[in-house]
Specification:
With 84 residues, this protein is mainly alpha-helical. It contains 4 helices and no strands. The chain has a domain of 54 residues. The mean pLDDT is 93.
């Protein structure tokens, strides 16, 4: 399977561009909220101690849409890496 856009039909390229646009709009409009949610999750680390990672996974699983949950997950990972 080729991912070269030149090898795809106009309709396929349009679908890909529409999805990219949708994801960019989601990212742009939710970045601040995702950062706040990630900070909230990190803030619970000292309170939840050994159960924190399990709790974070449950919180992320409950977030919708999945793309937003991925944004929060990435921000949590970024914050965790920065604190080491």
């Amino acid at each position: 399977m080729s991912f070269n856009l030149a090898n795809m039909s106009l309709a396929e390229r349009a679908m890909i561009e529409d999805e990219k646009s949708r994801l960019f709009d989601l990212w742009q409009s939710n970045l601040g909220k995702a950062k706040a949610d990630a900070a909230r999750l990190i803030g619970e680390k000292s309170k939840r101690k050994g159960k924190w990672a399990e709790w974070v996974r449950a919180e992320l699983d409950g977030m919708s849409p999945p793309e937003y949950a991925n944004m929060v997950r990435a921000e949590v990972n970024r914050l965790m890496a920065a604190s080491k």
